[in-house]
Amino acid sequence: MTVTRRDFLKVCGGTATFLGFSKLQVLEALAQAKEGKPAVLWIQGAGCTGCSVSLLNAVDPDIAKVLLEIISLKFHPTVMAAAGEMAMAKLYDAAKTYDGKYFLVVEGGVPTGANGHYCMVGEYKGKDVTMLDLTKRLGHRAAGVLAVGACAAFGGIPAAKPNPTGVKSVQQIFKDNGIKTPLINIGGCPPHPTWMVGTIAHILTKGLPEVDGYKRPKLFFNNNIHDNCPYLKHYDAQKFAKTWGEKDACRVKLGCKGPDTNADCYKKIWNNGVNWCVDNAICIGCVEPTFPDGVSPLYEQTTG
Ligand code: FSX
Ligand code: SF4
Ligand code: SF4
């Protein structure tokens, strides 16, 4: 693969610089990645695969280029061709080859009930492999871990009450097992593709990004949605929508959680810049550790 300036501009959404990096820095990082470094292992537990689909939906170049070429992907349950024991063997081979150097991406929460057996991710040499086993084993030996999406980062929907399978976040699993590997949480259900690609670009070019108290990159999760919302003037004028169809009114009485939510959705916009949640509905606070139990009922006013 030849990484061109055009590729860079595509990854960066057509802008001349990305997260403050020079074109040269990012091109160098992408060129390094195409040589097969660093290796990325992407594992999935209790989730809906929406995080991977989000990446697929909105990133240009397409997911094959990002996952296979830019980040040197070695394992991904959704997009790889291998399956069964062969896939598990590849995963363990890659973990051995890049021991201490690979990056682990975890998508989905980690069920701990029944000793992890509510989430079987494979079999290897006649033994069950659970998501719990894999998170501990691969997390322990990784250079760094990205917990991608609400479920991996904070438990999310699979950990919602009554949480029958005992789902925990990656950081909780690490805490319970004394694993000290650097960890970054990328909130969102699902995360915006730029939050995922941008965090990886930051790691490749500048190292681990600065994070907030929830280990989320400040680059993306430092600004309040309500304070930056195009409907703020209506909120200030107390003009509140009573139905979904009303366009020129604030949605707080329909349940919008914008005042309690910190993310840059209002300027990143979703679906390749077509729209975002508050345009046609409400913010449900999906990037916050309180999601979903702490922001429920979603469609009733709980803030503001
Ligand atoms: Fe969770 Fe990923 Fe929500 Fe889904 O698998 S963040 S349920 S959008 O996609 O983990
Ligand atoms: Fe925008 Fe929601 Fe705040 Fe209203 S409550 S101004 S819709 S973020
Ligand atoms: Fe999540 Fe709110 Fe952003 Fe929508 S606007 S993606 S609900 S944080």
Strand content: 5-15%
What is the CATH top level name of the largest domain?
Answer: Alpha Beta
Total beta strand runs: 9
Oligomer: single chain
Order of strands across the biggest sheet? Answer: 2-1-3-7-9
Q: Return the domain count.
A: 2
Assign a percent range to the helix content: 25-40%
Task: Report the sheet with the most strands, covering strand number, pairing sense and barrel closure.
Answer: 5 strands, parallel
Features:
35% helix; alpha/beta; Cytochrome-c3 Hydrogenase, Chain A, domain 2; 13 helices; disordered N terminus; binds iron/sulfur cluster
Tell me about this structure.
The protein has 13 helices and 9 strands. With 304 residues, the protein is α/β, with parallel strands linked by helices. It has 2 domains: 5-219, NADH:ubiquinone oxidoreductase-like, 20kDa subunit (Rossmann fold, 3-Layer(aba) Sandwich); 223-295, Cytochrome-c3 hydrogenase, C-terminal domain (Cytochrome-c3 Hydrogenase, Chain A, domain 2, Irregular), CATH 4.10.480. The strands form 3 sheets. The chain has a 5-stranded parallel beta sheet, with helices on both faces. A two-stranded antiparallel sheet has the order 4-8. It is globular and about 65 Å long. The protein starts with a helix and ends in a 24-residue tail after the last helix. The protein binds ligand FSX and iron/sulfur cluster (2 copies). One iron/sulfur cluster (SF4) binds at residues 188, 225, 261, 263, 265, 276-278, 283-287.
